Amino acid sequence: MADFHQNGNIAQFHDLRQRPNDELVYELETFAQSRKISLILPSLYSELEGDALPAILDELSKVSYLHRIVIGLDQADEEQFRHAREFFSRLPQDHVVLWNDSPRMKALQTRLDEQGLAPKEAGKGKNVWTCIGYLLACADTAVMAIHDCDIVTYKREMLDRLLYPVANPNFPYQLSKGFYPRIGDGKLNGRVTRLLVSPLLIALQKVLGQRDYIDYLRSFRYPLSGEFAMRTGMLPDLRIPSDWGLEIGVLSEAWRNLAPHAVAQVEISDAYDHKHQTLSPEDANAGLNRMSTDICKAIYRKLAADGTVFTHNTFRTLKATYYRVALDLLEFYAADAVMNGLKLDRHSEEASIEMFAENIVRAGQIFLENPHETPFIPNWSRVHAADPQLIEDFKQAAAEDDAEFGMSLFSS
Prior knowledge:
Layout: E1 11-13, H1 21-32, E2 37-44, H2 52-60, E3 66-74, H3 78-88, E4 95-99, H4 103-114, H5 124-138, E5 143-146, H6 156-167, E6 175-179, E7 183-184, E8 187-188, H7 191-208, H8 212-218, E9 228-231, E10 240-241, H9 246-257, E11 263-267, H10 287-305, H11 312-339, H12 346-369, E12 376-377, H13 380-386, H14 390-404
Parallel strand pairs: 1-11, 2-3, 2-5, 3-4, 6-11
Antiparallel strand pairs: 5-9, 6-9, 7-8, 10-12
Helix pairs in contact: 1-6, 5-14, 7-8, 7-11, 9-10, 10-12, 11-12
C-alpha cells in the first residue's frame, strides 16, 4: 500500500519503505522521556489460550518506551485471574491486569448502577472504558494506544507506527487510527468494512446528499480497525459506545470534539489478520449479524445528532441503494482478488450483502422505535462529577485484587 495520497480531510501517514523502523523507535524513546506512553489491551480470558496473544507479548516485550500496560481481563474467574497474572508477568514493563469480574469491581459497578452511570452491557466497550478509568486515576500518561489481543500477524512495528503521529510533540494530531489490508490464508478478508461500511456510506451520500460527517468517515481506509492512539487530554470527555459500534463511535467522538486536521490515519502493516467473527445469519444477537446492526445504529445516531431526519421510507430507500452499490463494489473486489492471486467466495460475499441489507432496515427500525436509547457509557468527567471518590476507589480495588492474589506486578 505504498503511496502518498492525501484525501484532504484527515492526515494520512504512509509506509513508503524508506526509513528504518529503528529510527522511529529512537524518536519514540526520546519523546517518552517527557511524555509518558501507555498501552491498553482489552482481553477475554479465552484469548490467553490462543496462539495470537503469546506472540503479541513476545513482541511487546521488546518495546522499551512504554511506561505502563493496562490489561482489561473479561470473563475470568479467580483461578483464571491468577493464571492471567502469571501469563502477563513476562512483560518487562510496569503493568496491571484489571480483573473486571472481581467482587471488588462488581461492587463498584453496583455503586455506579445506583447513580444510573454503570455500563449497560459487558463487552469490549466496557473493557476499554474501565482501562481508561484506571489510566486517568494514575494521572501520569500523556499518550495512550489501544489494540486488540487476537492479531495473529502482530509485529511491534505496528505499535511504533500507530503511536508516532500523536507522540511526536511537533505534530498537531490528537488521534491516530491504524489502517492495513485484511488478507489471510490466501483470502481477501475484512467483510464488514468492504461489504457493509464502504457501500453504506456511499449509499447514505446518494440518499441524503453531501454530509461532512460522511466525507469524514469515508476518509478512513479501515474505519473498523481496533488500533487507536490518542493524547490523553481527550479521554475524560470521550464517550465510549457500549455495543459493537465502538470503533465508529470513537471516530464520531473525534469528529465531535476535534478539528479534522487533528485526526490522522497511519499505515501500520501490509500483512494483517486476526480472529474472524462468524456471520451468524440465524441469530440477530451474535457474530457479524449483531455487529452490522450496531454499526449501522452508530452511524444513524451521529447523523441524527447533526440534524438529519430519518423515516421508515429513508431506510427502505437506503437499503435498495446500498444493495446496488455493494454488488458493484463486489465486482471490484473480485477482480482485485483475481489479479493478486487471492480467493474470494462470491456466494458467501453476496449472502453477507443480503444480510447486511436487511440489517440496514432493522437498525433503522430499532433507531426509530427507541428514541430515548442511551447508547454511550457515561464519560469519566460525568462519573467524577457524580462521585469524585470513585476513580481513586477503582484504582485501589485493582491494587487490592493484585495484592490478594499474588505479589504486586505494578507500582502505584
